[in-house]
Amino acid sequence: MKAIQFNLTIPRYALGLALGRVYPAALWNGLSCTSMKDVPEPQLPGPEWVRIRTRLAGICGTDTSTITLKTSPYFSPFSESPFTMGHENVGDILEVGSAAGEWQVGQRVVVNPFLWCGPRGYAPAEWCEPCQRGENNLCQRYAEGGLRPAIFMGSSRETGGSWSSVFAMHKSNLYAVPDNVSDENALMVEPFACGLHAALMDFPADDETILILGAGTIGLAQLAALRALGSRARIIVSARYGFQAEAAQRLGADEVLQVGDLYAALAERTGAKIYKPLIGKRVVVGGVDRVYECVGSDSVLDDAMRLTRSGGTVMVVGMPGQVRGLDWTAIFSQELKVRAAIGYNHAEMFKGKAHRAFQLSLDLMAAGQVDLGALVNRRYRLEDYGRALREQGDKRRHPVVKAVFEFSK
Ligand SMILES: [Zn+2]
Ligand SMILES: [Zn+2]
Predict the structure, then answer these.
(1) How far is CA 246 from CA 295, 374, 378, in A?
(2) Which CATH superfamily is domain 195-340 in?
(3) Which CATH architecture has domain 2-115+150-188+372-406?
(4) The whole model's pTM is what?
(5) Residue 106: which of 188, 176, 180, 1 has the closest Cα?
(6) Residue 409 confidence (pLDDT) above 80
(7) Over the Cα atoms of the chain, what is R_g?
(8) pLDDT tens digits for 109-134?
(9) In angstroms, what is the span from residue 345 Cα to ligand 2's centroid?
(10) How far is CA 61 from the centre of its chain?
């Protein structure tokens, strides 16, 4: 079968860094680490696994960071190439292992891609401490157990990934998709669950003013999660493009700012005061109660700190790397609380009960509390992945929120 594979070698990496700026296609046409390959279908890694035929596979910022070689080396001990990319998915079960009997061929499922203690073959009594608490996004065994090092499907040699027509997953990571949840909504479960996790780990009070920085998939999922979970806080979203602003309006933002001068716009709305320092970015006294940083870029992280009031909270939701130009003085002088949210887990506290993030997401979708299907607004055949990646990086001409690869049956 055809698969988009990532194969890291030092010469390919160096070539990609050298060529990628002037000739981006070098990053995915095989000169650097990413290319389309003909590979055998992944087999069941064990009897508790199933194989899944892909319906839709999402293209995520994590994937493009990998392809453009921007992922931090921090993650490199937990990945072994070559691997097939792709972790956002919805598909149909194709084959069921002998000890995964509760699942059936033909069931439509979405899989949690994280390869925590469960998929690694540990019995519950042997799970690491975070996994035992249900915080399996913080698993301590990503390089141990019955699988080779990998944090999630899409960076694993054994599971395959959803950027191909077939992949494998352990039964503990499968979620049946209710009939009234569309493929598009099911595909959005993974990013939505990220927003759900960040919302529930420290749920905002209804009298807070919230700023969501970024209205790509993660920012919109953050907004949708807060609203689906019942938040009545005042939510301001900062969006770059018109199509993102429209989506944010639809998903329940009180106000969407699509402006050049975000600082001035926020000062006007919150009564904050702006000061001009000797050099560098402006200093804000006052600001919003809470920021969800959903971009992960250095300068937006810095803005997040500056725009939060004293004692307020910054939630880091977009994936950061080695940050340059973040002035810690804002954090220090305003005694900010900075919290990070990665992925989602089995202990999302909602209405006094722990929930699995994917199940809660599917339940909210089935109940009509959230509908993200319309965010899936561009489809490609896997063979056209080069065009998909090019258009992904050119939002001015291509108003893409969530692009997917679509597979024929
Ligand atoms: Zn993703
Ligand atoms: Zn674990």
Answers:
(1) 18, 12, 16
(2) NAD(P)-binding Rossmann-like Domain (3.40.50.720)
(3) Alpha-Beta Complex (3.90)
(4) 0.96
(5) 176
(6) no
(7) 21
(8) 999 999 999 999 999 999 999 999 99
(9) 11
(10) 7
